[in-house]
Design goal:
The chain is an alpha+beta fold and 124 residues long. 47% of the residues lie in helices and 23% in strands. Helix 1 crosses helix 3 (84-109) and helix 2 crosses helix 3.
Length: 124
C-alpha cells in the first residue's frame, strides 16, 4: 500500500461525503507531509483510531467557521457558535470519510476496527 493509494482513498471518500451528504464539492490541493508543529488556530479537530494489521489515527480538521458551515449543511440549521451539535456533526463527517477509507483499506489489509470520533475545539 503506497502513500499515493492512501491519499487517493482519502480524497475519494472526502469528495463522496461532501457531495452526497453536504451538497458541496471539494477542490483538491497538493498532498503534503507536515514537518513542523502546526501554527496556532481556532478550529475543530476530529480524531478516529484505526486498529488491525495497520494501526494509527485519522484526523479531520477545519477552521471554526467552516465547521459551523458544514454542520449547517448537514443538520439544516444555522449555528452562531461551536456547540455540542457542531462537534457531533464534525465527528459524524469524520466518521463517514474515515469509515469509507477503512472499508477500502480492508480490501487490501484485512479486517480493521474503527474507534468512535474524539472531537475537540479551541485555540491550538
Amino acid at each position: 500500500m503506497t502513500q499515493e493509494e492512501v491519499t487517493r482513498m482519502v480524497r475519494d471518500s472526502a469528495h463522496h461525503v461532501f457531495a452526497t451528504m453536504l451538497g458541496r464539492s471539494l477542490v483538491d490541493q497538493e498532498p503534503y507531509e507536515r514537518t513542523s508543529a502546526p501554527c496556532p488556530a481556532d478550529g475543530v479537530l476530529a480524531l478516529i483510531g484505526f486498529a488491525g494489521s495497520w494501526s494509527g489515527s485519522g484526523a479531520f480538521s477545519c477552521p471554526a467557521t467552516l465547521a459551523k458551515s458544514i454542520s449547517a449543511a448537514l443538520l439544516m440549521q444555522e449555528f452562531a457558535a461551536i456547540d455540542s451539535e457542531v462537534l457531533d456533526a464534525i465527528g459524524e463527517v469524520a466518521n463517514m470519510i474515515l469509515g469509507n477509507v477503512k472499508t477500502q483499506l480492508e480490501e487490501k489489509l484485512g479486517p480493521m476496527g474503527l474507534s468512535v470520533p474524539t472531537v475537540i475545539h479551541g485555540h491550538n
